[in-house]
Design goal:
The structure holds 3 protein chains of 3 kinds.
Chain A: H1 2-11, H2 15-41, H3 44-65, H4 70-91, H5 99-123, H6 134-137, H7 145-164, H8 166-174, H9 176-181, H10 186-208, H11 213-227, H12 231-255, H13 261-279
Helix pairs in contact in A: 2-7, 2-8, 2-10, 2-11, 2-12, 3-4, 3-5, 3-10, 3-11, 4-5, 4-10, 7-10, 11-12, 11-13, 12-13
Chain B: H1 2-10, H2 14-38, H3 42-63, H4 68-91, H5 97-117, H6 127-132, H7 140-159, H8 161-169, H9 171-176, H10 181-222, H11 226-251, H12 255-273, H13 279-291
Helix pairs in contact in B: 2-7, 2-10, 2-11, 3-4, 3-5, 3-10, 4-5, 4-10, 7-10, 10-11, 10-12, 11-12
Chain C: E1 6-15, E2 18-28, E3 33-37, H1 44-51, E4 59-64, E5 67-68, E6 76-79, H2 93-99, H3 102-105, H4 113-125, H5 141-155, E7 159-163, H6 171-186, E8 190-195, H7 198-204, E9 207-212, E10 214-220, H8 221-224, H9 227-234, E11 238-243, E12 246-251
Helix pairs in contact in C: 2-5, 4-5, 5-6
Classes of the chains: A mainly alpha, B mainly alpha, C alpha/beta.
Chain lengths: 301, 292, 252
């Protein structure tokens, strides 16, 4: 049975399969790019907070529009993602705050608001929230052709924008002090990075879900760091392995009934990470078997 | 007004069961949360709460049972495994600790979700409930679990209070006076996992994080001493539970969600208006200094 | 000859397979005020961590009065670098000093009169009694350092180990701390201080250890504090001005 479904998948007999595949690869590639800067900047868990924080936006947009209009839901998601990023910034500054707690607070409270709205929609007269829970763990198969086109255009524009700002971003993640000294507006750049993060999260949540989108932002770049020593290499690995994880995730999710796309692609990405952790040329475990007397110094990126 | 407050209690025993469970869980989370927050382990708590889900599933796969002790054991084993993996990963020079947390818990959580939707689909595990909680549908099992776990956790915190304080404030000093800092750390993580599992049925895997972090963060804005901070944290927990539960009944929505939203609102209030460390006071102080 | 208060033999310490301290050996007699001096990254704090048992050595041993340090940790009192704690922590100065008694009162025993006396005496000897109820972050750098010194005094012990106690404190506090350290030495205690101000070394310490990953010299301050030894310790980073035998030395 699984074999048959696998054949079906590759035959692309159904349009939705191609769309799911496209959306999942898009998620992997875009998140792989944005995530590289995020992980190196030490913002890994911002992705988690912003992912969770899109839920209230989706639900609120549904309440306002009254039905599942994709553009409206994603706009709602973007608005709440931006508010969440801003809120983390506010709550991390000043005395008597912990920036890690700020992330945790925004993550859980925004998610709580989302749950309240979802439950409210569920019990209210419209009663059409079946599609909304798909945002939790992702359902790439529900993405239509025109939707995919829009997502792809946004994704490509985002990648191009990041490409144009590659140099300042690379300086920012490598050495903020130096970046500032050569006249780069680091605060503005950071805001831009968080905006890029918000957009990346929003175009990803339909396929991977709000809860696990963080994984696609963190795991492929971390894998890349075991495979390449320089930033362009890390990004290249991160984007390609992210895309590949997306594709395999979509495949697995199609073949095995009941497996949501999001968790499937996350586990594929984790498998790649595991391989890189063990065999990666940059700090992989097998290369670290200690030779007598040999000492390895910290590898600087 | 009075009827509105009193009526829910007449509608069946779910009200007192829900109120009791969620208050106890919230108090335990609030107390543990103070130490986690001060040790900058908020996000590790986040990870542990997520990881308890695959823990429960793993326990079910191994034993075929969903009894309280089995769930706790599974969650603790998987939780410590995750904590160990995070620590090992973050020791590698090319992985920061926040990335390590992100990698480990999302992977474990994804695995848990997949197992729930495939291998153990036929078991009576209510996925929706594990993730989002159901305050007003507390089972006997959950009630007993909470009634056992919470007093034990609070008792242990009381007994090890000095070790917890010293190792949270100044770990090197604590180690130097012979406090087993590593054991205290893992003990704390075990307590968090156990409390999270006990709280799952009531508030779910994700919102339990709010019960751990938000009260402590609020209390830190109000207190200058640890005992007062713990007291404020408990007050925050209780107020959010009561207000949140009534709110949920009034507008007919998720009780767990409502409790968390109320908690978040209380944090915002403290953040702005806390008497000494609030932002409004801070701004007013800077302005009067400038004028002086 | 009496048993050394502390004897370190062939100690090697490393982080992530990178050796920070290599084959360090020295001995300290009881009742001395000892300075540990060396450039940044010389491994001073690492050495201290190993002495107080917060770090496992790769090789070598540490003996306190002839016994392995691990068995005698209670004889050792540690004052960490001031920067190592969280100033936002909700704890008062008095509560920090009370922590000094945790070792002797254990987990649950109440503070007896003798414990309360020890805390009160310690606070009095560094003049912070009236700050007892202030939150630790609301104190000045010098006051904070005194609080940690008071905690160490309340703790007692035979060997005191202090990591940069004079970093970021005012002159009044520095001289108050030095007085306390001298008083401890005169009671027969051994006091080991990581220090970085070369100008005061001769004035403060009886015994000096020059460290730069390895021991450059260890012995009575007068014998060890020489231009040649300092040049070896600091490489080119030290400027030495000699003026009729009186040396003024500054590290940069």
């Amino acid at each position: 049975m699984y074999l048959q479904r696998a054949q079906e998948f590759f035959a692309f007999q159904y349009d939705f399969v191609a769309h799911a595949l496209g959306a999942s690869v898009l998620v992997g590639v875009v998140c792989g790019l944005v995530g590289s800067f995020l992980v190196l900047r030490g913002f890994s868990l911002m992705g988690d907070a912003i992912g969770h924080a899109t839920l209230p936006g989706v639900a609120a947009a549904f309440l306002v529009v009254g039905h599942q209009h994709p553009a409206a839901l994603l706009t709602g998601a973007l608005v709440s993602a931006v508010i969440a990023a801003f809120t983390v910034g506010v709550f991390s500054r000043g005395p008597r705050v912990r920036s890690d707690a700020a992330i945790g607070i925004v993550l859980s409270v925004f998610f709580g608001i989302g749950i309240v709205l979802l439950a409210f929609i569920q019990t209210s007269a419209t009663g059409m929230q079946a599609g909304l829970t798909q945002f939790l763990f992702g359902n790439a198969a529900a993405i239509t052709g025109p939707q995919l086109q829009v997502l792809a255009v946004i994704g490509v524009v985002l990648c191009v924008l990041i490409g144009l700002h590659y140099r300042p971003l690379a300086l920012l993640v490598f050495d903020e002090g130096f970046a500032r000294s050569v006249g780069i507006k680091t605060t503005r750049l950071e805001v831009g990075l968080l905006a890029a993060l918000s957009v990346a999260v929003v175009i990803s949540i339909q396929a991977v879900g709000v809860i696990l989108v963080a994984a696609m932002l963190i795991i492929p770049p971390s894998t890349g760091r075991f495979l390449a020593g320089r930033l362009p290499g890390v990004i290249a690995w991160s984007m390609s392995l992210g895309g590949l994880s997306g594709a395999l995730g979509a495949f697995i999710s199609y073949v095995f009934e009941g497996v949501a796309t999001g968790p499937a692609m996350v586990l594929v990405a984790t498998a790649f990470f595991g391989l890189a952790l063990v065999f990666g040329p940059r700090g992989g475990l097998v290369w670290q078997v200690r030779l007598p007397g040999a000492r390895r110094s910290r590898e600087a990126l | 007004m009075i009827t509105w407050l009193v009526d829910p209690w007449m509608w069946g025993d779910w009200m007192w069961r829900g109120m009791l469970t969620v208050n106890l869980v919230a108090i335990a989370c609030a107390v543990l949360g103070v130490f986690l927050y001060l040790r900058r382990m908020s996000l590790l708590a986040d990870a542990l709460a997520h990881v308890a889900l695959p823990g429960i599933v793993a326990a079910f796969l191994v034993s075929g049972s969903l009894d309280g002790p089995v769930m706790l054991a599974g969650a603790v084993v998987v939780g410590l495994l995750a904590a160990g993996s995070i620590e090992t990963l973050s020791r590698r020079p090319n992985i920061r600790s926040d990335a390590a947390i992100g990698i480990v818990f999302t992977s474990f959580f994804a695995l848990g979700v997949i197992l729930l939707s495939t291998v153990v689909r036929d078991a009576h595990i209510d996925t929706h409930c594990l993730i989002f909680g159901d305050v007003l549908g507390i089972s006997d099992r959950a009630l007993w679990l909470v009634l056992t776990v919470v007093p034990v956790v609070l008792g242990l915190v009381a007994i090890f209070y000095r070790w917890l304080t010293a190792s949270s404030f100044d770990p090197r000093f604590a180690a130097a006076v012979g406090i087993p800092v590593v054991a205290v750390n893992y003990g704390l993580m075990t307590a968090v996992t156990v409390t999270a599992v006990a709280g799952f049925e009531a508030v779910g895997a994700i919102l339990v994080i709010a019960l751990i972090i938000v009260p402590a963060a609020t209390a830190h804005l109000l207190a200058d001493r640890l005992v007062t901070m713990i007291a404020w944290s408990i007050v925050h927990a209780i107020v959010s539970c009561w207000v949140g539960l009534y709110l949920a009944i009034a507008i007919n929505t998720s009780a767990a969600g409502a409790i968390v939203v109320v908690g978040g609102a209380l944090y915002l209030l403290a953040f702005l208006f806390a008497p000494r460390h609030g932002r409004v006071v801070g701004m007013w102080r800077t302005r009067s200094r400038r004028e002086a | 000859m009496t048993v050394s208060a502390m004897e370190v033999k062939g100690l090697t310490l490393s982080y992530d397979d990178t050796a920070v301290v290599e084959e360090v050996s020295f001995a300290i007699q009881p009742g001395q005020l000892v300075g540990v001096v060396g450039p940044n990254g010389a491994g001073k704090s690492t050495l201290i961590k190993a002495i107080v048992g917060a770090m496992k050595p790769d090789a070598g041993s540490i003996l306190l009065s002839g016994d392995p340090a691990a068995d005698k940790l209670s004889a050792l009192t540690y004052v960490p670098q001031r920067g190592a704690v969280d100033w936002d922590f909700p704890i008062t100065a008095g509560e920090v000093v009370r922590q000094g008694r945790f070792q002797s009162v254990g987990l649950l025993r109440r503070f007896a009169a003798e414990d309360r006396d020890a805390v009160a005496t310690a606070m009095k000897s560094v003049a912070i009694t009236d700050l007892a109820d202030r939150q630790i972050g609301a104190l000045s750098g010098g006051q904070q350092q005194r609080v940690f010194l008071a905690r160490a005094l309340a703790q007692g012990g035979d060997i005191f180990v202090m990591d940069e106690p004079f970093a970021g404190v005012d002159a009044a506090t520095e001289s108050a701390i030095v007085d306390v350290l001298r008083a401890l030495r005169d009671e027969g205690k051994t006091v080991i201080v990581v220090h970085h101000d070369l100008a005061t070394v001769c004035d403060y310490f009886d015994h000096l250890i020059l460290l730069n990953r390895k021991i450059i010299a260890s012995g009575p301050t007068r014998e060890v504090f020489t231009a040649e030894n300092l040049r070896q310790t600091y490489g080119g980073q030290v400027a030495i001005f000699t003026d009729d035998g009186a040396e003024a030395i500054g590290a940069g």
